[in-house]
Design brief:
- With 234 residues, this protein is mostly helical.
- 74% of the residues lie in helices and 0% in strands.
- It has helices at residues 2-9, 28-94, 96-101, 104-132, 157-167, 169-189, 196-227.
- The longest helix is centred in the first third of the chain and has 67 residues, at 28-94.
- It starts with a helix and ends in a 7-residue tail after the last helix.
Length: 234
């Protein structure tokens, strides 16, 4: 009839195409999809945990640096004050000849340089010790961060000596270097057949060689211990 023909020509009377849902995966395809989902979830969880651990380590490093800088500034300021008092007050009073030879810039450097040296030394040693023993400085270690135990008395003598050497490398370097240089200067000043400039020059060369040798041996041993796990443990 005419009505049926008109309905067939009108788009509004046409039936919409039926779309069936895709069939569920079965067999190896389903297993592969499950493994991919599990792997993606595990990777996301691991990335989240790794980022949290990095944040905790960064916070711990920030606290260690803050403590080390605070102690370094305290000791550096004390050394600068002591150097200033010595160069501007004590030396002119008790050694007027030396005080008359020192200019204002020389006196200022004698006050500033000890403060800078002490600040650098105390900051470095405090950072090194705070990383190993954070609880001694009121710092909570990061989760998963290995904390060195206190030196045990059950270790062999040479292992305890190596641990002390490993924990106080910079102190040993400073004390040993100053002691060696002082001994060399004293021996050279006792040479009567040399002029003063020759004694100072010989002292500088011998002291430089000795301190550099001590530095290479010290840092070589420390690097070897670091590559093998650091301190000896019980």
């Amino acid at each position: 009839s005419r009505a049926q023909v008109a309905g067939a020509r009108c788009p509004s009377h046409r039936e919409a195409p039926r779309t069936d849902p895709p069939p569920p995966l079965r067999g190896p395809a389903a297993a592969t999809r499950g493994r991919n989902t599990t792997s993606a979830t595990a990777e996301s969880t691991y990335a989240t945990m790794a980022s949290e651990a990095e944040v905790e380590r960064a916070e711990m490093q920030s606290r260690v640096l803050s403590v080390a800088m605070s102690r370094g500034m305290q000791w550096g300021a004390a050394a600068a004050v002591a150097g200033g008092v010595s160069s501007f007050a004590l030396v002119p009073q008790f050694a007027p000849r030396i005080g008359s030879m020192l200019s204002l810039s020389a006196k200022t450097s004698l006050a500033v340089m000890p403060g800078i040296a002490v600040f650098a030394f105390v900051t470095e040693t405090t950072m090194e010790r705070a990383r190993k023993y954070p609880h001694l400085y009121g710092i909570a270690p990061a989760s998963g961060e290995a904390v060195a135990a206190a030196p045990g008395q059950e270790l062999a003598v040479w292992k305890r000596a190596a641990n002390y050497f490993y924990d106080n490398t910079y102190s040993i370097l400073a004390v040993g270097g100053v002691g060696i240089a002082g001994k060399i200067l004293r021996d050279q000043l006792a040479q009567p057949h040399l002029t003063l400039s020759q004694r100072v020059m010989h002292s500088r060369v011998f002291a430089q060689f000795s301190v550099l040798s001590l530095l290479m041996c010290t840092m070589g041993l420390r690097e070897a211990m670091s590559k093998n796990g650091g301190r000896f443990r019980e």
